[in-house]
Amino acid sequence: IDAMGAMAQGLFCTLLVGTILNTLGTQLHIGFLTESIVTIGKGEGAVAYTIGSLCSAMVGPGMAVAIGRALEAPPLVLFSMVPVGWAANALGGSAGGPLAVFVIAIVAAEVGKMVSKETPVDVLVTPLVTIFAGVALAALIAPPIGAGANYVGALIKRATVLQPFWMGIIVSASVGIALTLPISSAAICLALGLTGLAGGAAVAGCCAQMIE
After folding, report:
1. Rounded Cα distance, 128 and 142, in Å
2. Which pLDDT score, from 0 to 100, does residue 141 have?
3. CA–CA dist 185, 175 (Å, integer)
4. DSSP letter at 182?
């Protein structure tokens, strides 16, 4: 539960802030927010980033570091969560990336904590063990987690389109309940990729719960 709450904070500080900056730049025609500040790659594969898109690109590392902080990981473990989060999010895909980060970051942080300060060469052993455990686990389970989350999210969205009244009630009530529990409704919706009609039902449930 602590990890999921922290995951939402990492999400807010990266993806959501990046989206806000991009939206402000586009809607208000603010030049420095819409101009590319860095280009990564060469040729046709080059990707240009604005300030906002750079924030959004760091969503995996941001969530992983936040989770490590919530689990009281020591500094060397905490800093090693950056590549772990990036690998988990990238291998999990656009839909399942956040869920993969959640699972893998918890495991990597706990493994790192077990070896932290246990050897005379802690500055080498702890980052190596944490990063290896996290990236290896990401390569092993992140793609299946991503596929599963994508399937469940697509199923929910499809069911909502077919039965908008009943599924709208179920989705909005479920997200509203999650909003009052010590878990993150934002992290759940992101992990399942709830958009379209299902995303609208989730927003309605959040709004109703906040008013209540």
Report:
1. 20
2. 92
3. 6
4. T
Distance CA(142)–CA(120), nearest Å, equals 33
Q: Which two tokens stand for residue 89?
A: 């999010």
**Contact call for residues 184 and 12 (beta carbons, < 8 A):** no
pTM for this structure?
Answer: 0.80
In angstroms, the CA 106 to CA 139 distance is: 15
**Residue 43 per-residue DSSP state:** G
Question: Is the predicted pLDDT of residue 119 greater than 70, yes or no?
Answer: yes
Q: Which two tokens mark 18?
A: 């990046």
Where is pLDDT greater, at 90 or 178? Answer: 90
**Residue 48's beta-bridge partner residues?**
39
Cβ-proximal residues to 48 (8 Å cutoff; 6+ apart), any chain? 36, 38, 39
CA distance 170 to 177: 11
Q: In whole angstroms, what is the distance from residue 87 CA to residue 104 CA?
A: 10
Q: What is the CA 59 to chain-centroid distance, rounded?
A: 6
Q: Rounded to the nearest 10 degrees, what angle do helices 75-115 and 59-70 cross at?
A: 60
Q: Output the six-digit token pair for 158.
A: 């499809």
Cβ burial of 31 (10 Å; 0-12, 13-18, 19+) is exposed
Instruction: Provide the pLDDT confidence category of residue 212 given band limits of 50, 70 and 90.
Output: low
pLDDT of the residue at 189: 76
CA distance 88 to 135: 7
Q: How far apart are CA 7 and CA 4, in angstroms?
A: 5
